[in-house]
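Milestone M4 deliverable, item 7.
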Amino acid sequence: MQRTVQQNVSRPGRNGEALQIESEGSPARAPRLSAAALAVAFMVMTAGAFAGQVNHKEGAREAAKAALERSVRSILEPALRKSAGVGFRSFQCELPGQLGAGNRFQCEGIDEDGDWLGYSIRIEEDRSATVVLASERASALDAETRATLEAPCRRFLDRYQARDWAALDADLHPALKAEKTYASASSDLREVRELFGGIRSDRLEVHAVDESSRNQLVYTLDCKRGRLSARFGLEQDDHGMWRVIAFLVSALPGSREQAMLLEKAGRKSLAETIGAPVAGLNAPLERLMRPGDAVEGVVELEDGKRMPVRIAQTGWKDDFDPVDYRFSILDVTWLVRRALAHRLPAPITVRCNDAVVPDGGETGCTATGADGTRLDLEVTRSGGAHRMHRRAPQGG
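Output delivered:
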C-alpha cells in the first residue's frame, strides 16, 4: 500500500475549504498540485509523431513538440481543475531527444491565477509516461503548511551552518540513516561545507510533490564562497514528526561553482579509470546545464601526457542522486590497447587512422601483440561509448 506522507498538512481551497485527494489508505489533505503529482500515467504517442528518436528537422520537430504538449496538457489540466479549480493559461514542454524507457522530459505551465507549475515526466516501458515530480513556487504555500514543512529543513541548515554533524545526523529520518549510501552522502555534505563556507542567506524557492506523495522543498543558499542549491525530501516518522528523508546540497547547473566541483570529481574519476595521477581537467564544464548535455576537453596527467575526454550530464537536478555526470576517455589508441590487454601479449602496439573517433562515426585501427599477432579493427563511437569489431579480410 502506498503511504501518503502529507498527513496534517492542508491548503485552503477556493472557498476556504481544504482540498482533499483520495489515495490508497486514508484520504489526505494536501497542497493543490498533489492531484497531478500522484502517478498520473498517459500516452505520449500521438498520431505517429514519435518513433524512438525525435526527427530534428525543424518542421517535424515543431509538430512533434505541439503533439507532445497537447497530450500532456490533456491529462494534467483536468487534474488541476479538479484539485484547484483553475486550468492552464499557458503550457509548454521541452522536447526530448529520445523517448526510450527511463528518459525524462520537463513541462511547465502558468495557471489561470498566474502561478507557475512544473512537471518532470518519465517515459515507461509501455510507452506511457508518469509524472514523477510536480512543482510550484514556494510562495504558493499557505503559512501553516510552509512552517510545518520548513521546520526540519531549518534544523538541518542550522546544524550544517554550525558544523554540528552529530545533531544533524540525529535529526534525520531513521530510514535515511539505514541507507547504504548515507555514509557517502554525509561525507560529501561535509566536503561541500568546507569548500563553500558558511551560509550568508537562504531563500526557499520551490515546493514539490513526487510520485510517492513525498513533499520536497528546494532552497538557494548564498554562501561565503559561492551559491548552492539544497533539496530536501520530507516524510513523517512513526511518531508523526516531519523529518528529512533525503537531501542533496550541490552547486547550481551551469555555475562557476558547479564547474569547480565537476573538475575535482572528474580528476578523481579519470585517475581511477586511467590508473595514473591526474593534474588537471580542461573542459567548458559550465555548459552542462541539463541531462543530455555533453562537452569535450583534455585531461592532463602528472607525467605531462594529455588525453581527450568527454563529460556528459546523465542525471536530473530534481532527484537526490549525486552521480549525475559521466567521464569518458576518447583516446582511441588507449581504449583499444586497454580492451585487448587480455587477448594479446604485451606490449601491444596500436595504430589508428584518427586520434578520436568522430561521434556517430568510425575509424580503423591495427593492434599488434608482442608475439606478432595482428588484429585489424573497426572502432565506432556513440557519445562516450565505443565498440570494436574485427575487420573482415580484404578480398583479392
